[in-house]
Amino acid sequence: MEPSSLLLAAAAVVxxxxxxxxxRFSYWARRGVPFHAPKPVVGNFGDVLLGRKNVPGLLAxxxxxxxxxxxxxxxxxxKPVLLVWDPEMVRQxxxxxxxxxxxxxxxxxxxxxxxxxxxxxxxxxxxxxxSKLTPAFTSGKLKAMLPLMRDVGADxxxxxxxxxxxxxxxxxxxxxxxxxxxxxGTVAFGIKCNCLRDPNSDxxxxxxxxxxxxxxxxxxxxxxxxxxxxxxxxxxKWFFAETNDFFLNLMRDxxxxxxxxxxxxxxxxxxxxxxxxxxxxxxxxxxHLKVTTGVMAAQAFIFFLAGLDNISNTLGYxxxxxxxxxxxxxxxxxxxxxELQQHxxxxxxxxxxxxxxxxxxxxxxxxxWNPLGVVFRKCxxxxxxxxxxxxKGQMLFIATNVINxxxxxxxxxxxxxxxxxxAEEKAKRHPYAFLPFGEGPRICIAERFALLEMELTIAVLVxxxxxxxxxxxxxxxxIDTRAPLPKPKNGFHLQVTERI
Length: 500
Ligand code: HEM
Description:
Elements: H1 3-24, H2 27-31, H3 46-49, H4 55-64, E1 71-76, E2 79-84, H5 87-96, H6 123-133, H7 139-164, E3 169-171, H8 172-188, H9 202-211, H10 215-226, H11 228-233, H12 240-261, H13 268-279, H14 293-306, H15 309-323, H16 326-342, H17 349-354, H18 356-369, E4 375-378, E5 383-385, E6 388-390, E7 395-398, H19 400-404, H20 423-428, H21 447-464, E8 465-468, E9 493-498
Parallel strand pairs: 2-7
Antiparallel strand pairs: 1-2, 3-9, 4-7, 5-6, 8-9
Helix pairs in contact: 7-8, 7-21, 8-15, 12-14, 15-18, 15-21, 16-21, 18-21
Bound molecules: protoporphyrin IX containing FE.
């Protein structure tokens, strides 16, 4: 090709790209929705890509200019996204008009077994699987899982006491992270993985790998959130081949072993096996997802993804707050000891459910730490939400961290105050003003499981141990802005002594 033709072709490409972005980036202006001016290509997400802010932090900052409006338009790369924090609009999106917003727009690749999670599925397949998985989280099932969790809780207390040597500072981020991995190992996969004792176990290595953020993994997560098809085309699977094989083999081995030995355990693998047996009778192939070993592994994998950092970091944050408030910590310990006494010394399900301060502390931790910070939906039928006409295909982000910090609802929002979660206080506020687990038919399926695990952990720790500020104590925990979701930059260092 002639140099002049080459130059002309290059100019045409540049002009086409320019015109494309100019059109894309005028989306909100054309609709009269207040918006943030985007940067070329990255839209409003440049600070996340550069590691300057995590996703909830970015969304909180973007909401600030339009706080009273309750929503604004943003651009995730070139994709317009409606950012919402007005509780009434949120109610409409996640509950009232659920039929127009039933999916998250997550990628689903039939060739990638671990992408077939309840979180990612949409439409009728989601509905069918959700109804099958819901019974796995009933009170009866949680009660049956509790002894498994309690054993790991006892291991945690022993390990913390061991590392504290009667008064040293301990990094609770590391120990809690190993603890939650052991819990998931036992309740989801039926194996004792011993990460608390052995920080180099296979399970621990895999969980570390999974949560290790690389520029490629962050880019993929962001891109797949807004461009599912693009995500599927990228030359690596949802969580890379090694992770796929690890979880698939784990599930396969567990199922084989149980089928051979007829051993039954009160865990998630057992429930998935029952589901698979019942599934053989399901005669609706169009709307239901066949429960293969891959589909079973995918659901257990979500346990792994959702049940680790979310829970361990919220607990680490709570212990940090308790270390700074000895009075609250003592009241908590008294409640735990009183209820234990009244329940024959056993930390039973009934005893835990009587510990109302423990529960309020867990909720206040979730309000302030808010591990996910954002809930998303994709519009599947054009619908008016408040003053905005949301078109089919439109992505919506619900900034739950902004809602949780509204000072008209939670005065002095930065203050750790469990009394915000009494029944009377709850009755005074909008029902959508506190959403750590999302809301509506797609609310976190494991909400009660996650709360139970958190309550159990708080109870076993404050019963036996006292947490206080040590030399590396951070009253205000510094956040690692390079991680997409809340993560402490320097761990949760706390001094630990035995509680008399
Ligand atoms: C403190 C811990 C946890 C928090 C804060 C949390 C929070 C959330 C949130 C905000 C959502 C989105 C809800 C929505 O879109 O309205 C969600 C969905 C989900 N979570 Fe959790 N979660 C936690 C633990 C877990 C655990 C341990 C599991 C293990 C099974 C789990 C499984 C799921 C699943 C499968 C969904 C998708 C539900 C659906 O689409 O039907 N989560 N979670």
